[in-house]
Specification:
It is found in: Cytoplasm. By secondary structure, this protein is mainly α. It has 12 helices and no strands. The chain is elongated. The two termini are 37 Å apart. About 6% of the residues have low confidence.
Amino acid sequence: MDPFLTLLHSFSSSLSDSELSSLKFLCRGKIGKRKLESVQSGGELFSILLEQQLIASDQVSFLEGLLESVKREDLVSQLKQFVEEGEVNAPDDQPDVHEKPIEVICENVGRDWKMLMRKLGMSEVKMDRIMAANPFNLHEQLVQSLREWQKWKGKDAKVTDLIKALRGCNMNLVADRVEQ
């Protein structure tokens, strides 16, 4: 399930009728009047905003502005926390600080990727799920497992942890390349 949609759903259920009316009013310049009149819930409004690409998981400033306008600082802080925890995908033109080491690891670690992920503390269940989703693509299994580890660790996902785990698995050559 998409974490951004889950967040929008929780926002929708916490909006009062008057807040929804205010949000609809604020969207008048962006969404046609007829469409806005049919909106009965926050979820419907968010769906229209998503369709019209006014909001997306990597484009939350419009939504943030709307929530600030209706004085829902609690939802604004949830949105900011969502963004900070890296749930929002980084735009493709800005490489993530972890992308380079992940690239190096993916190019140099083969069938032993599960040993590495165990060293990093990933559960067998998550690894099995990743394998089931990518049954014939070893490279993609490793990429997805490293991304899952990053998501799980959040701000605590450090390159030094990757290097330590690689050394713990006797993958010193790969660890040296990551350090470079």
